[in-house]
Design a protein that fits this description.
about 425 residues; alpha/beta; UDP-n-acetylglucosamine1-carboxyvinyl-transferase, Chain; 4-stranded mixed sheet; 14 helices; binds uridine-diphosphate-2(N-acetylglucosaminyl) butyric acid
Length: about 425
């Protein structure tokens, strides 16, 4: 079993380049299924989830080459695809569900194992299913699989999402691009990753209006063609390094991300006392004193991202004052608070609220990461804790952060990956 051994005390300083976004690249790889031939995706992060998605696409019949040096993935899609995504892969990565839309569009059928619960809550699929049904698919749940079929093809329709779900928006858009007629998605998600996939789909021949707004209009086209597309920079990785700079009273320049994709988080850091400078391709965060505690409410984009909530709780734990953090997306995201308490943090949760009272110092201890972002939050806390913090559950971090240890050590931290 691997752990990360973190020695507290370093002030992070330097420059870091963020790779493409995990939460985009996985969907872009799935979207490649929509066109026969070789689609190339660049700016691909070197993370475990990309390997899982590559394996899933291979099982569906695609030829996938992941070039680590070029940081690209080529997905070569045959005329005939398999349409079954098995449980052994889907259980490893919930994002596997994103093959549902493309398979249905390409094969008229998709059998995708239900991902089940995960470490951050129940995470339903009802909006994915309702959307596909509105497009004319029959969707049933049999023996742990979602079985979707559309013998007569899919037809454009109007879909209103109860909540701007990222996953449901992606599933419906990918299913609708080759449906007959016009599909309107109201209350669609507006995350930069949604803009990224829509942009790629357009470059594959799709016709989508309203990209970046909460109403997407998709005019069905006959067929799609392969493309080359660069993955959008990872705003959550960028935000994580920004918080790390602020917490350690350091100064870090982050490159490779559109600063408008992290503007709410950067504003919060300014409120916490950081000096933040933005450029066209990134930002610099400099902090010279203990941060001030900042309230946070997670919301769909352009609101504050849930994927930066644990990192901000970690920062608040060593801040001056107290902060109220409200989690509106994933009920179980506060689970990691119990681990943070092992470092001496003063956090009380009540439902979807957490009250964090800042302390002058934390003290190193063994802790367990329960999901990717909790893992990042715990390592950040370890960076400012006195002594040594051993973070277990490193596999979670490796799923979403490329070269996590190398980046931190490059900025002056002392983090070692060890076998226990
Ligand atoms: N929801 C439903 N029914 C649905 C779809 C969603 O009830 O049909 C609920 C979920 O249970 C959740 C909320 O709606 O409470 C948000 O779900 P959403 O569909 O927006 O999120 P997602 O597509 O499952 C993606 C990211 C998450 C990120 C969220 C929100 C991927 C692979 N995952 O999840 O990323 O937190 O959007 O921005 O893109 C992470 O990277 O650590 C992570 C969890």
């Amino acid at each position: 079993m691997e752990i990360l051994r973190v020695q507290g005390g370093a002030r992070l300083q330097g420059i870091v380049d963020v790779p493409g976004a995990k939460n985009s690249v996985l969907k872009l790889m799935a979207a490649a299924l929509l066109a026969e031939g070789a689609t190339t995706i660049t700016n691909v992060p070197e993370i475990d989830d990309v390997e899982i998605m590559a394996e899933l696409l291979r099982r569906l019949g695609a030829h996938v080459v992941h070039d680590l040096v070029a940081r690209s993935v080529v997905v070569d899609v045959p005329a005939q695809l398999e349409h079954r995504a098995d449980y052994d892969l889907v259980r490893k990565m919930r994002a596997s569900i994103c093959v549902l839309g493309p398979l249905l569009a390409r094969c008229g059928a998709a059998d995708v194992a239900l991902p089940g619960g995960d470490d951050i809550g129940s995470r339903g699929l009802d909006m994915h299913i309702d959307g596909l049904r509105k497009l004319g698919a029959e969707v049933t749940n049999e023996h742990g699989y979602l079985i979707a079929a559309s013998a007569g093809g899919l037809s454009g329709t109007e879909i209103w999402l109860e909540f701007p779900s990222v996953g449901a928006t992606e599933t419906i858009v990918m299913a609708a691009v080759t449906a007959t007629g016009e599909t309107i998605i109201d209350n669609a998600a507006r995350e930069p990753e949604i803009i990224d996939i829509c942009t790629m789909l357009v470059s594959m021949g799709a016709r989508i209006d309203g990209i970046g707004s909460s109403t997407l209009t998709i005019h069905g086209v006959e067929s799609m063609h392969p493309t080359t597309h660069a993955t959008v920079g990872d705003r959550i990785v960028a935000g994580t390094w920004a918080v790390a700079a602020a917490m350690t009273q350091g100064s870090v320049e982050v490159r490779g991300v559109d600063p408008s994709h992290v503007s709410v988080a950067l504003d919060k850091l300014r409120t916490a006392g950081a000096h933040v400078l933005t450029t066209a391709d990134g930002f610099t965060v400099t902090m010279s004193e203990r941060p001030l505690a900042v309230d946070v409410v997670t919301l769909p984009f352009p609101g504050f991202p849930t994927d930066l909530q644990p990192q901000f709780i970690a920062m608040n734990a060593i801040s001056v004052g107290a902060a109220l953090v409200t989690e509106n997306l994933f009920e179980a995201r506060f689970r990691f608070v119990q681990e943070l308490a092992r470092l001496g943090a003063d956090v009380r949760t009540d439902g979807h609220h957490a009250l964090v009272r800042g302390r002058p110092a934390l003290s190193g201890a063994p802790v367990e990461a329960t999901d990717i972002r909790a893992g990042a939050g715990l390592v950040l806390a370890g960076l400012v804790a006195e002594g040594t913090t051993d973070v277990y559950g490193v596999g979670h971090i490796d799923r979403g952060y490329a070269g996590f240890v190398e980046v931190l050590n490059g900025l002056g931290a002392d983090v070692v990956r060890m076998d226990m």
